[in-house]
Amino acid sequence: MKDYLTPAQIVAELDKYIIGQHEAKRHVAIALRNRWRRLHAPADMQQEIVPNNILMIGATGVGKTEIARRLAHLADAPFVKVEASKFTEVGYVGRDVESMVRDLAEQSVSRLRQRRQEAVKAQAAQAVEDIILDALIPPMKAPAKDGSSTGRSNLGFGIGEGSDADAVPTSDQELNERTRERFRQKIRNGELEDRRIEINVTQGGPSVGIMGAPGMMDEATMSGLQDMLGNMLPKKSKKRKVTVAEARKLLLDEEAAK
């Protein structure tokens, strides 16, 4: 939540999306601001600021859910909508309250993961560009220490047509670097989107089965435990031939998740 959002400003933000219900907006805005004040107050003052929980009652369609959703957005907090009829006492048919807490925790983890992926998006894009470039024009190995040459590569012939004599590369290494830079620029300009390349794509780990007595774990707990164990197992990579555009989409998510 931003520092400058006073209750009046919170109400103004809610007015952009919700018609009417001014009294409800005013009460929830004050409650949200008190939460924020308590969170940022000195430790000895926090006990003096009583946090307010919110219970909204009303007919269907009056704006209860939308108010809660917009408040969560303003507070940068996770939001989960649940149907009360799904929650019953433990031991009866239905889900227990722990499921709701688990859903909130999963939302928080998902939001944090997305935020961190956005923070490294630029680095991930650069790494993906390097992978695509390596698939198009592999880099040359450093020359041997004894000065021996592996022979001039023909990767760059025809690319530098019309260049001055002074621009002629003096070694295979320099020729390779210049060729790679030209192709890097083509990648950035979108000129090679339909070119097919071969890349290594990480595959998900093997599925993990968990045996247990019926009723010991609910479906959500079982699924979470399976995902955790699956992430611990080594993942395999597989070579795929795709276009540059497809490779960028596949690799960007993979690099950002590292």
Description:
It is a single chain. This protein is mainly alpha-helical. The chain folds into two domains: 7-77, P-loop containing nucleotide triphosphate hydrolases (Rossmann fold, 3-Layer(aba) Sandwich), CATH 3.40.50.300; 121-256, no CATH class. It contains nine helices and two strands. It has helices spanning 7-15, 22-40, 43-46, 64-75, 97-119, 121-136, 172-188, 219-232, 244-256; strands spanning 196-202, 237-243. Strands 1-2 form a two-stranded antiparallel sheet. Helix 1 packs across helix 2, helix 6 packs across helix 7 and helix 6 (121-136) crosses helix 9. Mean pLDDT is 76; it is low at 149-166.
List keywords for this structure.
Rossmann fold; 2 domains; 258 residues; mainly alpha; elongated; 5% strand; 9 helices
In short:
It is built from 9 helices and 2 strands, in the order αααααααβαβα. It is mostly helical and 258 residues long. The protein has 2 domains: 7-77, Rossmann fold, CATH 3.40.50.300; 121-256, no CATH class.
Given the helix and strand composition, which structural class is it?
mainly alpha
What would you call the shape? Answer: elongated
Measured between the Cα atoms of the first and last residue, the distance is 28 Å
Number of domains in the coordinates?
2
Low-confidence stretches: 149-166
State the strand order across the main sheet: 1-2
Classify the beta-strand content into a percent band: 5-15%
Mean pLDDT over all positions = 76
Q: Note the main sheet.
A: 2 strands, antiparallel
Count of individual beta strands: 2
Fraction of residues in H or I helices: 40-55%
Rg for CA atoms: 29 Å
State the helix count. 9
Order of helices and strands: HHHHHHHEHEH
Oligomeric grouping of the chains? single chain
